[in-house]
Each structure stands twice: as structure tokens, then as C-alpha cells.
Amino acid sequence: MTQVRATSMLVVVALMWLVLATPFTLVSILAVSGVRPASDADHLLVKTLAFVFMYANHSVNVVVYCVMELRFRTALRRMILCYGAGRQACDLCRTRPTTTRSRSGSIIMTTSLMSAAVR
């Protein structure tokens, strides 16, 4: 199931790239071939709109990742909440070493996230 979601997300990203990057490529190819609108103002408008579509592709990718992938949403939320106000990690995300016992009975040192309930 995870592979299906990842594949569908990649297909959506690829299709969005194709749709949003094609106008700029076509305008560039047509301009080199000599096919242009009658006035320079019209050509500049068409070229600018195609450029906006191309740059919108980069912004839309983040939205597609957030909509289609839970792990990306979780990582993005943690990054924004922890490092949004400054460069220091918040108290909820600071790590602390803990010891746990494995099934065989040996002690294992692990690093876990502090939660609000631990405080």
C-alpha cells in the first residue's frame, strides 16, 4: 500500500511538472523559430505567464507532498513547530538518552523524544 501511495504521488508530481513547465518550453521554442505574437507587449505577457507557471510548479510540489504523504506532513510539521521561531529545538523535540531492556534482557541505550507528559 505504501508503494502505491508513493507511486501515485510521483505520477502526480510528474504530470504537474509536465503541465506547468510545457508552456515556457513551447514559448521558448516558438520564439527561436520566429513564431511570435504581433506585438512585443503580447510576447512579453505570454512569456511572463509561462514563466509564472514554471515557477508555480516548485511551489505546488510541496502542497502535493503534504496532501498525499503522511510522513512528509509529519516531518514538515515538526520542522516548522520546532525551528520556526528560532534555531533552537523546542523542549518537545530535544532528545534525551534512556535505557531499555531488550527481549534477551540486555540493557540498550536509546534516544527518545521528550513528550509533554514526561515533564
What do you see in this structure?
The protein has 119 residues and is mainly α. The protein has two domains: 2-79; 93-119, no CATH class. 63% of the residues lie in helices and 12% in strands. The chain has a two-stranded antiparallel ribbon with strand order 1-2. β1 and β2 (107-113) form a beta hairpin.
The N- to C-terminal Cα distance equals: 37 Å
Strand order of the largest sheet: 1-2
Helix content: 55-70%
Number of domains: 2
Oligomer: single chain
State the main characteristics.
119 residues; mainly alpha; two-stranded antiparallel sheet; 2 strands; 63% helix; 12% strand
Q: What is the structure about, briefly put?
A:
The chain has 119 residues and is mostly helical. It has 3 helices and 2 strands, in the order αααββ.
Write the layout of secondary structure elements.
Layout: H1 2-33, H2 40-68, H3 70-83, E1 95-101, E2 107-113
Antiparallel strand pairs: 1-2
Helix pairs in contact: 1-2, 2-3
